[in-house]
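DATA SHEET
Item: assembly model
Revision: 1
Owner: S.N.
Input lines:
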Amino acid sequence: MSANHAIDSQLDKRLDEIRTGVSETVSVDDIKEVVESIMGSMQGELTATDIQLYLELESLASFIDAAKSDIAALRPDEVTDDYIPTATDELDAIVDATAEATNRIMDYAEIIEGVCDDVSPEVADKLMEATTNIFEACGFQDITGQRITKVVNALKEIDDKVNRLVDAFGSEIDRYKAAMPQEEPEENKKITDEDLLGGPQLQEKAQSQEEIDALLASFD
Amino acid sequence: MAVDMSMNVLIVDDYKTMLRILRNLLRQLNFVNIEDATDGTMALNVLRQTDIGLIISDWNMEPMTGIQLLREVRSDDNLKHIPFVMITAESKTENVIAAKEAGVSNYIVKPFNAETLKTKLTSVLGEF
C-alpha cells in the first residue's frame, strides 16, 4: 500500500467516524481537523493544481478560524445563560402580577355586586351593569397571558438553537472567555448610573419596604 | 321548554382568572350551579361523576385540549347530548371548522362580553 493510500484510508476512516458520530451537525473542530488532514497529506512533488488546491484549503482553514473567533466573540453562551432566562422570568412575573391584580379587581367587584340586595332596584341595576363591565374587562388577563406564553415558547426555541451553537463552538468560546474576560471582578467593579436602571425586581429577589427601611436606618 | 337555570354548568379553562370571570358572568345570568375544571382530562372526570347540562370550554389547554375534550364528549353515549360551547382566542377559520366538524354547539371568541355570552347560550339552550 502506498503512503498516499494509507493517508486516504485514515482520512476516510475519520470522515466515517464523523458521519456516524453526529446526526445533524458537524462541529467546526471536526471540519478543521479534516481540512488540516488533507493539507498534511499533500506531500512530495506538487503540481500547479495541487498547489492551487492547497492554497484554497489553507484559505478555508483560515476562514473557519476567523469565523470561530467571530462567533465566540459574540458570546452566544450569554444568550442562553443570562438574557433568555432573565427575559422568561420577567415575562412570567408579568403574568403573575396581572393575575394577582385581576383577582383583586374582581374581589372588589364581587363586594360591590353583593351590595345590590341592599339598595333600590334602580341603583342595583347600575351596580350590576358596572360589575358586569368590570368582569368583562378582566378578560384581558387571559388574552395577555396567552400572548406572553407564545413569546416565552418562541424564546425557548431560540434558546435551544443558540445552545446548539454554543455546543458546536464551546471550546472556542472558552478560549475567548479566557483571553477576553468581560467582567471585572465584582469587588473592583464600579457601579454606573446605567447599572442602577434595572427596572422592577422579580418578586423573589425584590427587597421589601421593611428591608429597605432597615437598610436606610443602618446608615444613621 | 324553559331553561332549567339550576342545571350544572361545567366551565373549563386553564386560566383561573377566566374561570372566575365566567363564573361571575354566569351567576349574573342566573345560573346557580357552576362546576369548573382546568383542563380536558379533569373536565371528563367531572362529566363522568356529575350530571352536567352545559359545557363551556376553552380550547388551548394541556394535556387535553378543548377540541379533544369535545371529541371525547361527542363519542361518549352518556355525554354526547350535552351542549358544548367553545370560548377561545383561537379565531382562525380552520379552528372554527374543526370545532364544527367535532360537533360544537356554538363558538365564542375571546375577548367576549356578557351580551355575547347570553346571546350564544340562548341560541344553544333557548330563551332564559
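QC remark: The CA atoms of residues 9 and 34 of chain B lie 5 Å apart.
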